Amino acid sequence: MHDFDTLELIKDPRGFATLWLSREDKHNAFDAQMIRELIIALERLASDAELRFVVLRGRGRHFSAGADLAWMRQAAQLDFNSNLDDARELGELMYALHRLKVPTLAVVHGSAFGGALGLIACCDMAIGTEDAQLCLSEVRIGLVPAVISPFVVKAIGERAARRYALTAERFSGMRACELGLLAEACAPAQLEARLADWVDTLLHNGPRALRAAKELLREVDAGHLSPALRRYCENSIARIRVSDEAQEGLRAFLEKRRPAWRPIDQEPQP
């Protein structure tokens, strides 16, 4: 097991993992070490065949303040090739999170600036507090949100991405919900309870089906229709219908009982 200095990776016995950003004294700001450790953590998670889903959170008062000031100061002294290496490392992190085979849920509170929006946008789902403050802050210091931009545009749309990347305006968790970056925004005091509800909801679902659904949606992407895509979708449902998990799920539904993957204390929601 890898010992992390900037993260905590906790496996819940119910089959999901929580990946904590844990530089609380730095408001979970990114530096080269955190980026490298996040890549290693995601590699570990990707190799866990029993994992159902991943929750991404930040310790302390903030989800993440973006880039660490000391790291940015150091980067300013680097030449082009060294900066390119840094950018490639950040890109590897974002793409690794985006392509993780299990569902991912970001939980946002406090501030989420700069690259932190990239992490949120790379996750499949995100919830947060109404008073969270989010910002594509790069242009304020003469930079651009280059590496994270494809994921931000996918998450909130081109028009909104243009506005917030060009103005560097802060926007609230409520606004993030309106934009589609967050699926839900709640009062801070309700965040833990709402997270528990989301976890329970995900645990109701077939572990293999979750992976298959994510793979399917990645292939479908923007929904460009083609004969090849039609064949892929038809093969996907036929393949999963004959799997052991799907057979168990269908039998449980018809027999009006819980499927084997759901713990006894989790009853179906109406």
SSE map:
Blueprint: E1 7-11, E2 17-21, H1 32-46, E3 54-58, H2 69-75, H3 80-98, E4 104-108, E5 111-113, H4 115-122, E6 125-129, E7 133-135, H5 149-156, H6 158-167, E8 170-172, H7 173-179, E9 184-186, H8 191-203, H9 207-220, H10 227-241, H11 244-254
Parallel strand pairs: 2-3, 3-4, 4-6, 5-7, 6-9
Antiparallel strand pairs: 1-2, 7-8
Describe the structure.
This protein is α/β, with parallel strands linked by helices. It has two domains: 7-202, 2-enoyl-CoA Hydratase, Chain A, domain 1 (Alpha-Beta Complex), CATH 3.90.226.10; 206-254, no CATH class. A six-stranded mixed beta sheet has the order 1-2-3-4-6-9, sandwiched between helices. A three-stranded mixed beta sheet has the order 5-7-8. The radius of gyration is 20 Å and the shape is globular. It has helices at 32-46, 69-75, 80-98, 115-122, 149-156, 158-167, 173-179, 191-203, 207-220, 227-241, 244-254; strands spanning 7-11, 17-21, 54-58, 104-108, 111-113, 125-129, 133-135, 170-172, 184-186. Residues 266-270 have low confidence and may be disordered. The longest helix is centred in the first third of the chain and has 19 residues, at 80-98.
